[in-house]
């Protein structure tokens, strides 16, 4: 029923003087006069002629308020809506008298005694003075009846009892006691299953594209989980005066206008627990890797309020990615939110994968949330993690491009709920959202289908809140609240390097810094293609090991000077010695920062490489040999001086004695390999 129809009915009811039943009878008599009614609805009859017919209709004598109302409908060309208006008018009149309308669905036509018994039961149940029954026959109920009254459904049908019995057996624990199971079956068959007998329900008004518009559900709340009659779950994302917008989290097969929707009374939640580690699940945390069911005893709501200021600790513990360019210049701490941003195919996901691989042996749970990615990409990523032994501490939440917009919408919240479970247990968690650009597009799709007003770039006005309430859940907790942490690495894709677009600027303002990957650097062979000028960490050195902080002190400045000089001197051949030295040093630093995929470096290897580079000890190494030389030298130290490397890893600092030892070893190593440079 449209809002216009409801307004018309309310306006007519407000003008009635006397018995509303007489007005309804007069309207019924008008519609029963087929010749007059068809003439009033005919488009060939003018509005003036319709007014004359209404004024002269014998069935409307003495009902001036109804004549005036019909004249208004004729002027607005809405006379065809009179049947719906009068139906709503009757409901208002019945409610004013303390009565109630109810729908009784039976397997066969009930006799008068049954009707009267139901009518009395409804009046007693709802405290009404009268109950008007609408009878509907549905043989599939097998027996009994289903009563819909005031938005609540009472299911006393044979079909309903069998369904509850089947659901109880399915949901029951596998090791349930036989006597307990038999008692449950007896209660289900007798209809004594408590709240399952009476549930608040609504009816589907229209459905399509994963969105259902539902009438009823007057007590529903935003974010509540509902269940459709085919078993498909849904989440309420739109609340209006007379209808509710629900997104389906599954198939809409078998659903049509009039299908029943039931409230569950609980928020949308997902199972959480240690059983998820090593598994690949969908957006509802259901296994999709073919490794059998997941045993989890707890659930958590996918939407949860972020921890408050009192429960948070400062971010000062490093979360090493194993990528030299990032750990040296854009350090990330445990509990931080660091954005990875760049154009398509610039290595954003590769950085996240290397960060996950580097957590091996670090007692950190890693969660990768794939949003809108190809299924082949997710499968390839899983194989990469499995190959390097990272699936032993990782969880993959997948909502591929082939899945519906609602599943892509809830996927990151599911990942956050799983991460919060481990964080509450005192564990450290790394979660990657790949990527939030596609997440925003999925939410825009849902919002437009829910008929919300579009704003900038057609996104709804609350798209900022969409990501802020997600990313604010990442933090480091105090020991009183569990002591765990959740580090978020959201990924955002830009178009032609435009970081000023709507979604990139939103996420930049929410996060604690960004790693900007530049296309030109990537295509020039600099990988990872980290732009030094636009990449920043707002946590900074407080989340950096002392060894790297000490050795990388001038790295960012050196690279910035190099990039600036490179632009101005690319067309010049006459350079002074100082400029040449700066350019030569910058080229060596850029070469040092090139790092192959899936080869994260330990703190000791990073510290050694940075020390020999920033101290100018690589200036006599040929440019094309810099990267391999630094790698081979770190390998040499791992083999011949493991105690030194272990000391750096354990203490996170580089002592004076260690630097002297590195210098001495480097000099002897150079003598060994310098002959190969000349050759």
TrEMBL record:
InterPro entries attached to this UniProt entry: ATP_synth_asu-like_sf (IPR023366), ATP_synth_asu_C (IPR000793), ATP_synth_asu_C_sf (IPR038376), ATP_synth_F1_a_nt-bd_dom (IPR033732), ATP_synth_F1_asu (IPR005294), ATP_synth_OSCP/delta_N_sf (IPR026015), ATPase_a/bsu_AS (IPR020003), ATPase_F1/V1/A1_a/bsu_N (IPR004100)
Q: Where in the cell is it found?
A: Cell membrane; Membrane
Superkingdom = Bacteria
Main localisation: membrane
Could you confirm whether the keyword Oxidoreductase appears in this record?
no
- Which positions does UniProt annotate for ATP binding? 342-349
ATPase F1/V1/A1 complex alpha/beta subunit nucleotide-binding domain location is 322-537
Occurrences of domain ATPase F1/V1/A1 complex alpha/beta subunit N-terminal (ranges) = 200-265
Provide the alphabetized UniProt keywords: ATP synthesis, ATP-binding, Cell membrane, CF(1), Hydrogen ion transport, Ion transport, Membrane, Nucleotide-binding, Translocase, Transport
EC id: 7.1.2.2
Give, as one word, the top-level EC class.
translocase
Q: Where is this site: Required for activity?
A: 535
Signal sequence region? none
The family note in this entry says: Belongs to the ATPase delta chain family. Belongs to the ATPase alpha/beta chains family.
Role according to the record: F(1)F(0) ATP synthase produces ATP from ADP in the presence of a proton or sodium gradient. F-type ATPases consist of two structural domains, F(1) containing the extramembraneous catalytic core and F(0) containing the membrane proton channel, linked together by a central stalk and a peripheral stalk. During catalysis, ATP synthesis in the catalytic domain of F(1) is coupled via a rotary mechanism of the central stalk subunits to proton translocation. This protein is part of the stalk that links CF(0) to CF(1). It either transmits conformational changes from CF(0) to CF(1) or is implicated in proton conduction.
Supply the name of the protein. Answer: Multifunctional fusion protein
GN (gene name): atpA
